[in-house]
Amino acid sequence: MSKKEIVGAFLGAVLQNDPASMRELANADYIQHNPFIPTGLEPFIEMLPVLQENGTTAENIRMFQDGNYVFMHNIWRNAKPFGADEMVSFDIIRLDDNGKVAEHWDAMTPLVKETASGRTQTDGPITATGLDKTEANKALAKAMVEDILMGQNPNKITDYISAEQYHQHNPGIKDGLTGIVEAVEYLTSQNNMFKYTKIHKVLGEGNFVLTVSEGEWSGKKQVFYDLLRFENGKAVEHWDVIQPIPAEGLANDNTMFGF
Predict the structure, then answer these.
(1) Average pLDDT over residues 142-154
(2) Suppose 153 and one of 99, 137, 147, 160 were both cysteines; which one would form an S-S bond, judging by CB atoms 3.0 to 4.6 Å apart?
(3) Residue 158 Cα distances to 87, 166, 233, angstroms
(4) Residue 149: strand, helix, or coil
(5) Closest Cα partner for 86 from 171, 192, 210, 167?
(6) Strand pairing category for 57-66 and 69-77
(7) What would the pLDDT profile of 58-107 be if each residue is shown by its tens digit?
(8) Which CATH number is correct for 131-244, 3.40.190.10, 3.90.1560.10, 3.10.450.50, 3.30.830.10?
């Protein structure tokens, strides 16, 4: 199986409560970065009946690969164990050199029906193109986060974001550069602007790049997952998940980062 197929099979085994397949596909010392799930494969398996009882399902919208990392954009339904009936997530799986599932990171947020742009949190293109531009696009995404979201050179926003097209999937922000400007002005007026403080990981396949960052918002520490789609050296589409980083009730001490 390809790395994407291995990850897809593992996700399917989780949802089908199939411990035998999970043990074939993953390492016993599977490292878990979801703060509410214990680390290790067997403790994870012990939690699966809760998903079965709730009828929890997942729909994979996008799946990309960067080396030994596979990153996914998913919708979870009947997902009350995760916090709401419907949730949107980014999931990252690291495979070891033997092709075994070795490590997992994620961030989740409730699915929102009414959005500022009229787009959903997950619609849009799903297939990567321009695979020869992966590293260039990753460098662009990293610089964009540093300059715009971390405030190093905010005036360079048009160097990174297309003025002609910027499809926005954050449910509270409208399309285009004007949508970003409006959101920044509003959040700043409320003294509640996003604060990005560190980039932990940049993963890409072709024209899609996912950045995983740490910061603060609404008085809480947050993890920011931002998925960008590039065309001709400019970002033309953005999806994200923002999740508070819990400080108590933790099931493991691996943190939501540790790449």
Answers:
(1) 94
(2) 147
(3) 32, 11, 11
(4) helix
(5) 171
(6) antiparallel
(7) 999 999 999 999 999 999 999 999 999 999 999 999 999 999 999 999 99
(8) 3.10.450.50
**131-244 shares the fold of 3-110:** yes
pTM strictly above 0.90: yes
Topology (CATH) of 3-110? Nuclear Transport Factor 2; Chain: A, (3.10.450)
Report the half-sphere exposure of 218 (CA within 13 A, side-chain side): 6
What mean pLDDT comes out for the span 111-133?
98
Spatial contact of 258 and 37, defined as CB atoms under 8 Å apart: no
d(CA 153, CA 116): 27
Neighbours of 221 (CB within 10 A): 15
So where are the chain's domains? 3-110, 131-244
Model confidence pLDDT, tens digit, residues 130-145:
999 999 999 999 999 9
| Contact (CB, 8 A) for 104 and 32 | yes
